[in-house]
Amino acid sequence: MKTGKIIREFAAKDGRKVVLRTPRWEDLDDLLEFINSLVEERANIVRTEKVSREEEVEWLSRVFSRQEKGEMFCLVAEVDGRVVANSEIVKGRGYASHVGVVGIAVKKGFRDLGIGTEMMKTLVEQARRMGVKVLTLSAFANNERAIHVYKKLGFVETGRVPRKFFKDGAYIDEVIMTKLLEE
Ligand SMILES: CC(C)(COP(=O)(O)OP(=O)(O)OC[C@H]1O[C@@H](n2cnc3c(N)ncnc32)[C@H](O)[C@@H]1OP(=O)(O)O)[C@@H](O)C(=O)NCCC(=O)NCCS
Known about the structure:
By secondary structure, the chain is an alpha+beta fold. The chain has one domain: Aminopeptidase (3-Layer(aba) Sandwich), CATH 3.40.630.30. It is 29% helix and 37% strand. The chain has 4 helices and 8 strands. Helix 1 (28-40) crosses helix 2. The longest helix is centred in the first third of the chain and has 16 residues, at 53-68. It starts with 5 loop residues before the first strand and ends with a strand. Residues 43-45, 104-106, 111-117, 139, 143-146, 148-149, 152 line the site of coenzyme A.
């Protein structure tokens, strides 16, 4: 898939135009700022350490190479020329090659505008195109907004790892959610 390919455009709940597209090299600094803003706000993601520009270059090169081989699909959301959300489907391998693992995050200041929902819908459509039959994701059990969005789009809780995360002095369960694309 080529870089910067526009997949969908829609209006956010505040009326701003959102472009969902594959990433391109010019997004590097936005993506770096994006991931580091999530780390800084201590969002409910696994990562706790900031990313260097070199690491981000390596990560983005790998995304392009894996995207090219059909091993993953990366989708960003652009508002006013800046990347404000990132998401991906990573395809499993071997006996799990029909499985896609989804990840998604929207930048602070751009949440609750419908962007996460539209991205997830687009990822589900893309997963079908990639031949994925089972989509799975993992969330912090206390991430009510994320779990609400996932349930709305047909994901159901299929597992739970007790005390998977330790944050701010408390354990938090990991919730595994699944959506079957072919019944
Ligand atoms: C979780 C996330 C991806 C959702 O994306 P988003 O763009 O904010 O989501 P949307 O605006 O499409 O939808 C938000 C929905 O959650 C609802 N919501 C907001 N806060 C909520 C809460 N505390 N509990 C339950 N639902 C909540 C909204 O009302 C809205 O519901 P609706 O569409 O039925 O009206 C985004 O908020 C995010 O990236 N958060 C921080 C990082 C993160 O948690 N990533 C997910 C890791 S698993």
